[in-house]
Design a protein that fits this description.
- The complex is a heterodimer of chains A (291) and B (132).
- Helices cover 67% and strands 11% of the residues of chain A.
- Chain A has 291 residues and is of the alpha/beta class.
- In chain A, the strands form 2 sheets. Chain A has a 5-stranded mixed sheet with strand order 1-2-3-4-5, with helices on both faces. A two-stranded antiparallel sheet of chain A has the order 6-7.
- Chain A is rod-shaped and about 95 Å long.
- The termini of chain A are far apart.
- Chain B is α/β, with parallel strands linked by helices and 132 residues long.
- Chain B is 49% helix and 17% strand.
- In chain B, α1 runs parallel beside α2.
- The longest helix of chain B is centred in the C-terminal third of the chain and has 22 residues.
- Classes of the chains: A alpha/beta (291), B alpha/beta (132).
- Chains A and B meet through α7 and α8 of A and α3 and α4 of B.
Amino acid sequence: MSQMLATWLAFHREALVAELAQQIRQSIGGTYAALSLDQLKGRFASLLDALQRAATGETLEPWESFIRSFAAQQVAECIPATEGLDALSATRQLLLEHLRRSLEDAAQRETALGQLEEWLHRAHTWFFEVYLQDYENRLAQQQRALAELSTPVIQIHENILVVPLVGAIDTERARRIMEELLLGITRYQAEMVIIDITGVPVVDTAVANHLLQTVKAARLLGTRSILVGISSEVAQALVHLQIDLSGVITRSNLQAGIEYALEQMGLEIAPIRREEVSEEETAAGRPLQRI
Amino acid sequence: MATEIIRIPILQIEDFLVASIQVALHDRSAVQFRDDLLQRIYETKAKGLIIDLTAVDIVDSFIGRLIGDVAEMAALMGSRVVVTGLQPAVAITLTELGLELPGVITALNLEKGIATLRRLVREDEENEGAAG
C-alpha cells in the first residue's frame, strides 16, 4: 500500500521500538510497568512489524488481525482498556512525530502521515471492539449464572420439592421461577412443592399474583403447592392489599411446610427407636417411617 | 372445511376409560372427541375417565375450555375425570389464559392418574354407602 512507509518503518525499527517501550513504561505505567523492558520491546516490535507488513501488502487485513489478537492478549492479561488505548495513542504519537521529522518532501510527508493516522485510528476501533465484546460476553455469562442461581429447585424427599426464593421478584424473575418450578415438577414427578418466601423482602400485588399463577399452573400438572415463610409484614401487606390466598395452603415456616407435606404423603419425621428396630433397618438409617 | 376430523381412540380399563391425545386437535376434532367421550361414558357406565395430555404441546383456549366442560358433563353422568401429564408450557399457557380448570382434577402421569381415580371412586362409594 505504501512502500515508502514500509521502508521507513524497517529502517527505524530498532530505534522506534526502544523509544516506544521506554515511553510506555514511564508514561503509562500500571500493568505495563510490571513487564520487563524486553517483553515490552518484543510486544511493540511485533506491532511495528504488523504495521510494516500492512504497508507492504495490498490490504489492511494483517494489521487488523494483529490488532485484534493484540487486544485479545491484553484482555487475557487483564490489562485495563484505558492502558491499552493509551499505549496505542503513545505509539501513534511517536510514529507521527518521527515521520514528520524524518521526511523532507512535504507532499510525501502528508500522504504518509495521513495514511499512518488512518491506520492507527482504525486500530483504536478494533481494539475497543475486542474489549467490548469480551465485556459483553462476561456480562452475559454472569447474567446466566445469576439466573441459574435465582431459582434452585431442590428435591428433599421422593415426591417433595422445595423452592427457596431469595431477593426481590420482578415479572421476568417470576416467569423464570414458574418455568423452573414446573420443569422441576415434571423432572422429579413431585406431588408436593413447598415455596419458601422467607427471603423475599416485599410482596406486592404483582408478586402475589405471580405466586398465585405459579400455584395454579402447578395444580394443573397435578401437584399441590404449600406457601411458607410469610413474615408478619408480608401477611399484613397481603391483607391490606386484599389478596385472596384462600386457595393456597400456607404454613408459617419451612419446617411446618415439610411436616405438612410429609403428613400428606403418609409420612412423619420420628426418632429412630434403636431397641425396637432390627439391624438392617438401622443400617439403612431411615428416620422416615410410614404411619 | 377440508380438514379431516381426527378420532381419538378411547380405551377401557376395568371401570375406567383412558383417552390419550397424541396430536394437535383442531376445533371440530375436539368437539368430536367430546361427543365420543360422553357417548362412551354413557355406553360403558365408566366410573372414571382419564384424559392424558402428555404428548400435547399446544392447548388453545377452545380446547382448554372444552376439557373443563367435559369434566362437568362427565360428573353429571356419574364419572370422575382426571387430566394427566400436562406439559409445563401448556400449564403456563392455560393459567395465562385464565383457564385454571378449577373443577378438573389433575395428576402428574397416567399411573398417578389411575391411582387418584381409584381413590376418588372409592371415596365416592364410601360416601354413598354412608349416606345410604
